[in-house]
């Protein structure tokens, strides 16, 4: 979601399905809404960032996120953790302060 022409602050939500403790947890429904959508909505509602991006290597998560209106950047499968996904987004987006 882009809130203004100024890139300003971008919030990045790193997302993947291969969690060791609870695989596919981002797809779990809470009150009929996926954990991923709840996370995205809280970021958007916080109104701190002008842009909220979900960074994932999963086409399944990409499709889900686009379905509820989120902006998605696909990251390489070689990203081993959320920090590497955020770093990839930082290299991809210009002129943004990431949080």
Task: Identify the notable features of this structure and list them briefly.
99 residues, alpha/beta, 4-stranded parallel beta sheet
3D architecture notes:
With 99 residues, this protein is an alpha/beta fold. Helices cover 32% and strands 23% of the residues. It has helices at residues 35-46, 59-67, 82-92; strands spanning 9-15, 29-30, 33-34, 51-56, 71-74, 97-98. Strands 5-4-1-6 form a four-stranded parallel sheet. The protein has a two-stranded antiparallel sheet with strand order 2-3. Strand 2 and strand 3 form a beta hairpin. The longest helix is centred in the middle third of the chain and has 12 residues, at 35-46. The protein is globular and about 35 Å long. The two termini are 15 Å apart. Mean pLDDT is 87; it is low at 1-5.
Strand count: 6
Question: Counting H and I runs of at least 4 residues, what is the number of helices?
Answer: 3
Parts with pLDDT < 50 across at least 5 consecutive residues: 1-5
Average pLDDT number: 87
Q: Which structural class is indicated by helix and strand composition?
A: alpha/beta
Q: Secondary-structure element order, as H and E?
A: EEEHEHEHE
| Distance linking N and C termini | 15 Å
Largest sheet, order of strands side by side? 5-4-1-6
Over all CA atoms, what is the radius of gyration?
13 Å
State the major sheet: 4 strands, parallel
Strand content: 15-25%
Global shape? globular
In which range does the helix fraction lie? 25-40%
């Amino acid at each position: 979601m882009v809130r203004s022409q100024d890139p300003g602050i971008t919030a990045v939500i790193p997302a993947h399905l291969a969690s060791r403790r609870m695989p596919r947890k981002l797809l779990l429904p809470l009150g009929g809404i996926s954990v991923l959508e709840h996370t995205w909505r809280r970021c958007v509602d916080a109104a701190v960032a002008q842009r909220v991006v979900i960074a994932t290597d999963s086409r399944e998560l990409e499709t889900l996120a686009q379905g509820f209106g989120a902006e998605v950047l696909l990251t390489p499968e070689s990203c081993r953790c959320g920090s590497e996904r955020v770093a990839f987004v930082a290299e991809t987006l210009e002129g943004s302060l990431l949080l």
